[in-house]
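Quick look at the format.
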Amino acid sequence: MGEIAMRRCAAALIMFAIFVAFMFTDDPTIKTIGFGFAVGVFLDAFVVRLTLVPATMAIIRAKLWYHPQWFAKYVPDPDIEGKHLEERLTDSTPGAGSTRAAGAGSH
């Protein structure tokens, strides 16, 4: 997560610098647009995404990831960590798993 935050900060600093550079033109419209974009990028990247969002997530914690039971039938469980697969492998017969491992290693 730290790497993502560093990339986001770098991108925000680049955009901020470009929009601040717009304020050095002679056209007042371009100056206004550059200032507005620079302030918007600064507030979004540094105040909202690096301060308010992590603080809110720290306060809410487990409630943030609440998944109601009625919604579970519409959204499948992807089992990213493989917990269900490990349970199926440990529940299977011990002889079948060792035969596969021995056969796979001999080829």
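Next, a different chain entirely:
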Amino acid sequence: MFYRTQREVAAAINKLVDAYWQEEIKEQGLISGVNNIFDNNQNKILKNNQFTKVVQQQCGKRRLEVVDKILRNGSDKPSLRKDFDA
């Protein structure tokens, strides 16, 4: 899904991670959801290989740790790992 703003992307990430923490979705659903959001909105999530300030402020450290782990390790797409490596 494509989002217009960084705040919309952050809200989607929050909803996804929170649903996983509340056991409303399984781990694979979280991984595919995060990868889908990242694939379609990379420019709104990352700047200079770091999460944008808006995303950091809206999502918080704990959620972004989960997203970071998925993007670095959980992806079977080498291009995501290459684009995200710091």
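Residues 1 and 37 are 6 Å apart (CA to CA).

See the schema section for token definitions.
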